[in-house]
Structure formats: C-alpha cells, structure tokens
Amino acid sequence: MKVIRWILGRLIILLDFMFSPKPILRDKTSQDLVNTITNRYKLYQYYACPFCVKVRRFLRKESINIEFIDAKDEFHKKDLTQNGGMLKVPCLRVGSKKNQVKWIYESNEIINFISKEIKSI
Ligand SMILES: N[C@@H](CCC(=O)N[C@@H](CS)C(=O)NCC(=O)O)C(=O)O
Hints:
By secondary structure, the protein is α+β, with helices and mostly antiparallel strands. It is built from 5 helices and 4 strands; from the N terminus they run H-H-E-H-E-H-E-E-H.
C-alpha cells in the first residue's frame, strides 16, 4: 500500500511538472499588492500529496509566492498538530502575530480563501 501510494505520488509530481500552469503576469504595482497580502501565508504540506499539489498549482497559476513548510519534518508536524489543531495537509497558516493566526484546512477552502483575498487586485 505504501509503495503504491509512493508511486502515485511521484506520478502526480511528474504530471504536475509536465503540465505546469502558466503563471499570470501582473504589473509591478499589482504584484507588489498581492505579495503584501500573501507574505502572511505559509503552506504546511507534503511534497507528493495530491491535495497539496492542487493548491501549489493554484498558487503557481496566480503567481503567488509563499513559504512551503514540510509537515513531515518533526518540528513542523508538532507545530501544525498543536497549533493548527490536527495533522492534515494542506493547511494554510495566515498571519504573523501569534494571537491572530488562522489555520485553514481543506484544499478547496484554502483556494477559496486566497482567491477572495486577492480578488480586488
Ligand atoms: N479533503 C482534504 C484531504 C486532505 C488529505 O487527505 N490529506 C492527507 C495527505 S494526502 C493527510 O493530511 N493525511 C493525514 C496524514 O498524512 O497524517 C483536502 O482537500 O485538503
């Protein structure tokens, strides 16, 4: 089972690479505005998780550059579980001040949240 999952994961990565979406091109002012919003984001993820690939493809398409956190790493796994509430990826951590941080689970929720935030730009 683990082997099959590993193979499927690599296949998804390969397909993602082969059919990588073309990033949207914004003028500098608009991209700077987007960056201002999205630099509060961190995506907790696994490299070969299909739901994480889905979110990463969305980010690439929207030219959103955010920090990816490897949730397999013990330190980050603990951080996600304790502060986010559960060990599940993808999870978007929003905010920089500790008491104002929001943890968003579910790939669709993450995509909807980011879409709404950058919609007006
Ligand atoms: N419906 C969720 C599914 C997410 C999901 O099942 N993620 C798996 C990895 S592919 C997970 O985090 N499983 C828990 C674990 O690996 O500990 C979504 O769309 O984000």
